[in-house]
Specification:
Elements: E1 2-7, H1 11-22, E2 26-33, E3 42-43, E4 46-50, H2 54-57, E5 63-67, H3 76-87, E6 95-96, E7 113-114, E8 119-120, E9 125-126, E10 131-132, E11 137-138, E12 143-144, E13 149-150, E14 154-155, E15 160-161, E16 166-167, E17 172-173, E18 178-179, E19 184-185, E20 190-191, E21 200-201
Parallel strand pairs: 1-2, 1-5, 2-4, 6-7, 7-10, 8-11, 9-12, 10-13, 11-14, 12-15, 13-16, 14-17, 15-18, 16-19, 17-20, 19-21
Antiparallel strand pairs: 3-4
Length: about 220
């Protein structure tokens, strides 16, 4: 079993710790933060060390690192830290849940993360540092770029997603379409055309009924 340090102690850091600890060949040894955000010496019972000093305490010759940073600045904050970690010499493993469905020849790339229940069809490519949360559906021959975040979308076959794109819960992209770079596709959105770079699409939010619940007689 290999040793791993995780950059980040937020919700994603907590999540990454659980999955790497319980469903991988890694043992999580420590957490890492930039020194400006280092407030507590421990998290999840493990030491928290400054990123500026991590190579001294946890050298890249013995430890790998996973960067668990969220969608801040449309994934660019995580991408920047990935580059910094690699510059320090760290190997950044990817994670593919044992409960995800993916072809046997599917290769997870550095710092990418695919959770349980996700369905990755044949000839799909998922880029570096791309996060795919549980129960996503990625259709045949689709291409997902680098530094993306997919929150349980449905992507048809031969869909292309540009780098740094966020796709929200239950959003759908129809087959044979291209999502531009740095798009934000909101929860429940339906995309049935190609999009340009830096575009934002919102799903239709439900509105409250004018009839209060205590007047409903069939529930």
């Amino acid at each position: 079993m290999k040793d791993l340090v995780i950059f980040g102690t937020g919700a994603f850091g907590d999540l990454a710790h659980y999955y790497f600890q319980h469903d991988s060949g890694y043992s999580v040894t420590a957490f890492v933060l930039d020194s400006a955000y280092l407030k507590e010496p421990n998290f999840k019972g493990l030491p928290v060390v400054a990123f500026e000093e991590v190579t001294t305490q946890f050298p890249p010759s013995r430890y790998d690192m996973f960067v668990a940073v969220g969608i801040q600045k449309v994934n660019r904050q995580r991408a920047a830290k990935v580059a910094e970690a690699e510059a320090k010499g760290y190997v950044l493993p990817g994670f593919l849940s044992s409960k995800a469905k993916a072809p046997p020849d599917f290769a997870i790339k550095p710092n990418s993360f695919v959770m349980e229940g996700s369905f990755v069809q044949p000839y799909v490519e998922i880029g570096r540092d791309t996060i795919v949360l549980g129960n996503a559906h990625i259709g045949f021959r689709s291409r997902i770029g680098d530094h993306c975040w997919l929150t349980t979308p449905v992507l048809g076959e031969t869909v292309t997603v540009g780098d740094y794109t966020f796709i929200g819960i239950n959003a759908t992209v129809v087959s044979n379409h291209t999502i531009g770079k740095s798009n934000v596709i909101g929860a429940g959105a339906l995309i049935h055309k190609d999009t340009k770079d830096f575009e934002v699409y919102q799903g239709h939010a439900s509105v409250a009924s004018k009839v209060p619940s205590h007047r409903l007689r069939r529930i």
